[in-house]
Amino acid sequence: MVDEDRKRPHAIFFPYPLQGHVIPAVHFATKLASAGFTITFVNTHFVHHQISKSGADGRGGDDIFTASRKAGLDIRYETISDGFPLGFDRSLNHDQFWEGALHVLPAHVEEFVERKVSSKEKVSVLIADTFFVWPSTVAKKYNLLYVSFWTEPALVLTIYYHLHLLRSHGHFGSQDNRTDTIDYIPGVRAVEPTDLMSYLQPSCKDTSSICHRIIDKAFDDVKRADFIIINTVRELEEETISALHQTQPTYAIGPIFPTGFIDSPVATSMWPESNCTQWLDSKPPGSVLYVSFGSYAHASKPAIHEIARGLLQSGVNFIWVVRPDIVSSDDPDPLPVGFEQKAREEGRGLVVVWCSQNKVLSHCAVGGFLTHCGWNSILESIWCGVPLLCFPLYTDQFTNRKLTVDDWKVGINLCDGDWVIRGEEVSKKIDRLMRGETAEDLRVKIKKVKKVLEDAWAAGGSSETGFRQFVEDIEVKINQKSK
Ligand code: UDX
């Protein structure tokens, strides 16, 4: 029986209930199941409902992991309430929803975990997104190992992790925050306050918002994790990861993608995907700019209008993902009047609500990506060798921009200096990204970083080794605990 347990540790996996977190969580869960874990993957009813409604789960049966189980993996799928009815608009009622995540969701989680551990399922591990505020308490109560799953760069994690240092040095949380370079975070040589995550920037005056309260609790909680898993690559963030590892066992195992990159057997999209392949097939190689601002951030209506103006002025072909809540879910059609029709009539532009981003980025017609700098988007774009035009909007995206533009030089900024956006500037920047000397230079640089990513997951590469090491280490710890 002990042998049997050693072969199949059983982990309950709670992804954060947001699109950009669910995607890497699904693929990490799949990797763990392929390595012999039993996984119980738990989405909220709402996330599950969105995926089902999008039609993407038509891939195969009863739940999103049906095809994985058919392929022999032991991944079970369950759902819990986040405390709100399905029809509640979580995007429009942002603060109310996150108050629920702080105060109500933990009770549903605990009830679920209690049910699992008191059954005969032999659960030994809790894997939870680092942004949750409850994992260490729940893990301790039910005698589980706690694995914290971080879906953003190590740099972002370590800044939150050392929030107390930012406070004590006066870079955060004081009346008049310092604006000079931050150079005292272990493993981070230098970071400018304007490159911090939106919640920590000097311009952020309300530091008692619901997001700040979640951050305070979550990044205290992570300090009690048995293991930290990061969706990044050691060679890209060597010093930061080493410094974190000295404090807690930390494993860089990115980039976490579906095995076939474009063909995932598991449905993850929360909006219906438009198929863009036929349209892309009709365009010359490298001629299309892909524009998407991810799954969560909002852009202002004036910014959307200036981008629309810049796109038309630039003459470039484009696919633009315009989510119905990109400005706000009570303004579902924020594009300038006639824009979409003009773009379609000229055969130059396609506007969609959602698409398979990996499929689009992999198409040879795509030559650039105007992005909000979500971490998944950056990793996917580098994987496809597509240079980035960076327009960060929210949360970690400012810090991710620094890595992309300043450190790795695989992208350029959409706006210089202020983040005020103008159509003429947008058009000029698109031109620099897609044609000429800068474009050539970016392509050369991104090929090199792409190789770093590829090597990391090749046999013996840092991420493959890191993943194997994590599996070995957690199995040892499970067996020590069960003695
Ligand atoms: C937020 C954070 O900013 C990000 O850093 C974190 O990793 C997740 O949460 P989000 O807006 O979700 O970001 O962006 P991103 O990380 O880029 O994730 C979006 C995901 O949705 C990507 O995997 C992308 O491929 C996918 N996507 C996006 C689609 O499949 N289709 C689309 O049309 C748009």
Relevant terms:
13% strand, Rossmann fold, Glycosyltransferase, 2 domains, 43% helix, UDP_glycos_trans_CS, globular, EC 2.4.1.-, 20 helices, 6-stranded parallel sheet, 7-stranded parallel sheet, 483 residues, 13 strands, alpha/beta, binds uridine-5'-diphosphate-xylopyranose, single chain
Task: Note down, in words, how this protein is organized.
With 483 residues, the chain is of the alpha/beta class. It has two domains: 10-254 and 458-482, 3-Layer(aba) Sandwich (Rossmann fold), CATH 3.40.50.2000; 277-454, 3-Layer(aba) Sandwich (Rossmann fold), CATH 3.40.50. The protein has 20 helices and 13 strands. Helix 7 (135-141) links the parallel strand 4 and strand 5 (145-150). Helix 13 crosses helix 18 (423-434). Mean pLDDT is 94; it is low at 1-5. Uridine-5'-diphosphate-xylopyranose (UDX) is lined by residues 18-21, 23, 151-152, 269, 292, 294-297, 321, 354-358, 374-377, 380, 395-397.
Task: Please outline what is shown here.
The protein is of the alpha/beta class and 483 residues long.
Write the layout of secondary structure elements.
Layout: H1 2-7, E1 10-14, H2 19-34, E2 38-44, H3 45-54, H4 66-70, E3 75-80, H5 94-103, H6 105-117, E4 123-129, H7 135-141, E5 145-150, H8 154-161, H9 163-168, H10 210-221, E6 227-230, H11 238-247, E7 250-252, H12 277-281, E8 288-292, H13 301-314, E9 317-321, H14 339-345, E10 349-352, H15 357-362, E11 366-371, H16 375-383, E12 388-390, H17 397-407, E13 411-413, H18 423-434, H19 436-457, H20 462-482
Bound molecules: uridine-5'-diphosphate-xylopyranose.
Uridine-5'-diphosphate-xylopyranose binds at residues 18-21, 23, 151-152, 269, 292, 294-297, 321, 354-358, 374-377, 380, 395-397.
